[in-house]
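Per reviewer request, we include the raw input and output of the structure prediction for the construct analysed in the revised manuscript.
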Amino acid sequence: MSDPSILVVEDEPDIAALYAGFLEERYDVDVAETAAEAIDRVDAAIDVVLLDRRLPDGSGDDVLEHIREEGYDCRVAMVTAVEPDFDIIDMGFDLYLTKPVSRTKLFAAIDTLLTRNEYDDLVQEAAALAGKRAVLSSQKPAAQREGNDAYAELVDRLEELDADIDDLGESLSTDDYRAMFRDLGESLSTDDYRAMFRDLGEA
């Protein structure tokens, strides 16, 4: 069985080389330093894309849009110095990591994304939305979240998924919870992970 394929999209050569050096011990790694290179190199064989939002010839957001429009079934982590705002809610990524990102956190994020590939579409969507909620909860005060229409729609969608996913809290093991959210902090307890899914039918 071949190693998972990772595409690193990063315009800073030193950072790109650092990430590639970390990852090559476990994965098949390719590097793109521009949006054009990323669009050219991403294909159905890629399992995970680590995507910077700021690129010299465009935006990582445009690369992400291309990936989703082409229907590539890869998981995408935004790895960027851009602080998350409410605009991330409508973006089709799976994880959002703010630089600097350690070796441990990078591996944890990729393990998380590869694990998510094993779940069906609804659970993948639930995990991505719950992750966005967690990121925004850590960055935005409650008053801003409560007054934002997009955030309200995110919460509403999580409630819809609650109706569509039977006993999600029981269908995922403790290891699955940890795998899906270990990038948010390895010190979180099992109860903390389950609390992230409180809108998704946690018993």
